[in-house]
Amino acid sequence: MLDARSTKNVCGKNNPTMRMHLWFETEGGVLFGLGRLQLLMSVEEHGSLKAAAEALGMSYRGAWGKIKTTEEALGRKLIERASNRRAGYHLTAFGKSIAQCYDKWYREVEAFALSKSHEFLPFPLDQYK
């Protein structure tokens, strides 16, 4: 294997940035990934599926479809209407849990991949910020 430390300026002035996209899927398609995580976090932040979708540059229908696909596959609700219908949506306890667990898992996998990159690649990598 090549030693990344002995390879000078392979990629120019700056080190390349490592980016990863990991997701879970079933026969029915995507179950959960970074996009679903961002959508759930946006719902929690905005208190509205419409505002969450707009903030992410997607249609309400697209956002609703992604949430429904995951809810149906898991057999659990991710979001629910607030007690006051005008208050919009918030995450269920399960929705919060899956978002937190996926985020933690993703960060650990990413950190591990970055820590091992020097063993396989002829250049150093920077972490995505």
Automatic annotation (TrEMBL):
Keywords for the protein's UniProt record, in alphabetical order: DNA-binding
Pfam families: HTH_1
Domain HTH lysR-type residues, every copy: 35-95
Gene Ontology molecular function terms on file: DNA binding; DNA-binding transcription factor activity
PANTHER family, per database record: DNA-BINDING TRANSCRIPTIONAL DUAL REGULATOR MODE, TRANSCRIPTIONAL REGULATOR MODE
Protein name: DNA-binding transcriptional regulator ModE
Organism of derivation: Pseudodesulfovibrio hydrargyri
